[in-house]
Write a structure and sequence with these properties.
binds nicotinamide-adenine-dinucleotide; binds 4-hydroxy-L-threonine-5-monophosphate; alpha/beta; Isopropylmalate Dehydrogenase; globular; 2 domains
Length: 324
Amino acid sequence: MLPALTMGDPAGIGPELAVKAWRARSAPFLWIGDPALLAGEVPVVEIGSPEEAAALTGTALPVLREPLAVAATPGRPDPRNGAAVIASIRRATELALAGKVAGLVTSPISKHVLRQAGFPYPGHTEFLAALCDAPGEEVMMLASPRLRVVPVTVHVSLRHALDLLDEARIVTVGRIAARALRRDFGIAAPRLAVAGLNPHAGEEGLMGDEERRFIRPAVASLRAEGIDAFGPLPPDTLFTEAARRGYDSVLCMYHDQALIPLKTLDMAEGVNVTLGLPIIRTSPDHGTAFDIAGQDRADPSSLLAALALARDLGEQRRRFDAAQ
Ligand SMILES: NC(=O)c1ccc[n+]([C@@H]2O[C@H](COP(=O)([O-])OP(=O)(O)OC[C@H]3O[C@@H](n4cnc5c(N)ncnc54)[C@H](O)[C@@H]3O)[C@@H](O)[C@H]2O)c1
Ligand SMILES: N[C@H](C(=O)O)[C@H](O)COP(=O)(O)O
């Protein structure tokens, strides 16, 4: 079974990367989108169902058609195409839930363009949770060769993130992350470093009391469940090479605390993974890159890593579940 790659924003670098990924032939996939976006770039065969895909992948890219409302112009996103972009994600998710594709790999979307099209979710992560009927169970991880990070709060303003943080949320995210590290990444006893929120992790309350009030208690609760969590640790030294040897993943308190170190270290090979869902979902770590769309400048490394990781996570999950 193949994974499904979604179209993403047709004015971004998604279509160019799909072409480059198919040419690389390192991890086969079927694509859900408007075939006009790929015309002349790769041999395409339109299929009616994923079952028809397996026989084709060596010779042509199998495509499930999801037509755009208007022709796409690279670098000029058009909210009128939002419905097709959303339909591509919905269809890939439904196929994954039905066991007809091995998982989904999403191409980048523009959150504000989709918002103009009436999309009520801040990103894929929250939309997928709704489609899987698992709201609140979705957890974002960014994984790369050198680091795995899990933000406890995600697509909210920094001010709002502070309001959302509490012991229960940290414990829930830590529990889901630890389980996914065991089940999907094959790490038998994952070590979970927990970042502090404040400078020097609060310096014993001198620079903030969130560590004392709820981060330390959350670490204790996770440990009581048998999870090897430790912290809160000062965030500024948590991502050094030496520190990274001491954990399998970091639980971070907000989006940029997690994503800045990962994208700085490993932008080209970073992969966004949604944990906590019944399906496998990965994505490249970059966005739509409208500034370079249509110029043949997009680097496919992160998408290739996302396709390979979707395959590996699926295989590991099947092995884990079979052994239970
Ligand atoms: N998975 C997703 O759907 C996803 C992920 C991240 C950002 N986004 C969205 O993408 C939009 C643009 O975000 P942004 O500008 O902050 O980040 P971006 O990743 O799109 O671009 C940042 C910079 O990196 C460059 N870049 C990105 N990917 C590249 C690649 N594969 N090869 C070469 N250069 C590349 C871009 O040209 C740009 O200069 C936003 O709407 C954001 O929300 C979506
Ligand atoms: N926070 C992600 C990143 O910056 O890489 C990105 O916005 C993607 O989010 P979704 O997977 O929820 O679309």
